[in-house]
Amino acid sequence: MIIKRGLLSFLFLFLSAGSAWAEGGGKLILCSTFPITQTTRNVTAGTSSLQVDSLISPQLGCPHDYALTPKDMRKLAKADVLIINGLGMEEFLGAPLARANPGLVIIDSSRGISGLLQDQVDDKSDEADDEHRGGFNPHLFASPVMTGLLTKNIAEALEGLFPEDAELFRANYRSYGERMNRLAADFTALGRRLGNNRIITQHGVFDYLARDLGLEVVGLVQVHPGSEPSAAGILSLIRIAREQKVGAIFTEPQYSDGVGRTIANETGVPSATLDPAASGPENAPLEYYETVMRRNLEVMANILGTRE
């Protein structure tokens, strides 16, 4: 996904106490995606002065090619703060956001994070087009390492906006950050024991997690999320799976696994579903991310095999 550095690029704000906030009443924090909502809920757990809600349905997943609805616009009009994933994930906001709430404070949770990966789009690929070449991969949330960094950014931004709850935010960040560190360590340990480190994935959502484990993503089923490959693209993936001796094909619950199963049937490479926790239930438990990622840990160990 290409990065458009327009309206959203400069909207990462830290405000001093009392600078723009009316006295009294709770503040509404909207989050652009389910993963950002869950991270923010963990940071703000225990405060009675803030309400955290998701802008879009938590069941939607990554909002690639999303268009704002009238309901979304009403939510934006009422919000005090909007926390976004950044890195081009929220291209759907643009001008409608400025119309709905021109004074809205926006926190870009990816701002300043190092170690970003380029989107895996080959400029020579038949599956790529001019609109979706280049740019950074925005799917930081699928890696516990990167989620820890997102958490830090969100906590520090909220400390600046709501200093009365700064101590709570810091304590929650330390707790959640430690949990992310433990989860990341478990993935790293698994990566050292895996029997095969070459995989094909649905799209680039697992690139950061693959890096954490030392896995090599040698092919993507969907160059652009939601766009199925052509017949030539499927044949190319079958060839890659055979030549690279791929260990697994990982699909996602957000998308059809039809192409992945076709490649698996043609090559004998096992396939399985990994959940990037891009979507989830309404009012998900605060530990939902960890539950999903530990399930992924088991799936990867079972399908790729481990060395003792």
SSE layout and pairings?
Blueprint: E1 27-31, H1 34-44, E2 50-54, H2 70-78, E3 81-84, H3 94-100, E4 105-108, H4 144-161, H5 166-193, E5 198-201, H6 207-213, E6 216-220, H7 231-243, E7 248-251, H8 258-267, E8 271-273, H9 288-304
Parallel strand pairs: 1-2, 1-3, 3-4, 5-6, 5-7, 7-8
Fold and architecture overview:
The protein has 308 residues and is of the alpha/beta class. It has two domains: 27-180, Nitrogenase molybdenum iron protein domain (Rossmann fold), CATH 3.40.50.1980; 194-304, Nitrogenase molybdenum iron protein domain (Rossmann fold), CATH 3.40.50.1980. Helices cover 39% and strands 11% of the residues. It contains nine helices and eight strands. The protein has helices spanning 34-44, 70-78, 94-100, 144-161, 166-193, 207-213, 231-243, 258-267, 288-304; strands spanning 27-31, 50-54, 81-84, 105-108, 198-201, 216-220, 248-251, 271-273. A four-stranded parallel beta sheet has the order 2-1-3-4, sandwiched between helices. Strands 6-5-7-8 form a four-stranded parallel beta sheet, with helices on both faces. Helix 1 (34-44) crosses helix 4 (144-161), helix 4 (144-161) runs antiparallel to helix 5 and helix 5 runs parallel beside helix 9. The longest helix is centred in the middle third of the chain and has 28 residues, at 166-193.
